[in-house]
Write a structure and sequence with these properties.
Blueprint: H1 5-20, H2 22-36, H3 38-59, H4 66-80, H5 83-112, H6 118-121
Helix pairs in contact: 2-5, 3-4
C-alpha cells in the first residue's frame, strides 16, 4: 500500500466501523446463511448459469427456444419464491450500497481536493439511468 500512515490508519478505522455496524453484520449473516443453504445456492447458480447462456445465445444472434425461456422463467420464479435467495439479494444490495457510498465519497475527495457534501456526491434530480437511484 502506498498510502501514508495517517491514511492507512483511517482506512483501518473505517473498516473497523464497517465491521461493527449492525446493518453490515446483518447483511453478512444473511449472505452466510444463504451460502450455507446448498439447495438455495444450487438453484441460484442454475438460474444465473442459464441466464448467462441465454444472454450469450442472443449476443451471438441466436434466438432462445421456448423451452429454454420457459425453463429460465421457472428458475427465476423459484428463486423469487425462495426466502434464502431473497435475503441474500437484499444483503448484497446493502453491502454494495455501502461500498458505493464509500467509493463515491473517496473518489470525489480525491478529485476535488476537499471533502464533498452528500449533495455533491449524490445530486438530486439528475435523472433516471444515472445510477444514483
Amino acid at each position: 500500500m502506498t498510502a501514508s500512515p495517517q491514511i492507512k490508519s483511517k482506512i483501518v478505522e473505517l473498516c473497523e466501523t464497517l465491521v461493527a455496524d449492525t446493518e453490515v453484520q446483518s447483511a453478512r449473516e444473511k449472505a452466510e446463511a444463504f451460502l450455507a443453504n446448498e439447495a438455495a445456492v444450487s438453484l441460484y447458480r442454475e438460474m444465473a448459469t442459464m441466464g448467462r447462456a441465454l444472454h450469450q445465445k442472443q449476443h451471438n444472434g441466436e434466438e432462445p427456444t421456448g423451452e429454454e425461456i420457459g425453463r429460465f422463467t421457472e428458475l427465476q420464479d423459484s428463486c423469487d419464491a425462495n426466502p434464502a435467495i431473497l435475503s441474500f439479494i437484499e444483503a448484497q444490495d446493502v453491502l454494495r450500497g455501502i461500498a458505493e457510498v464509500v467509493t463515491s465519497f473517496v473518489g470525489k475527495s480525491l478529485e476535488r481536493g476537499k471533502v464533498p457534501t452528500e449533495a455533491e456526491v449524490f445530486p438530486k434530480g439528475c435523472g433516471e439511468g444515472c445510477g444514483c437511484h
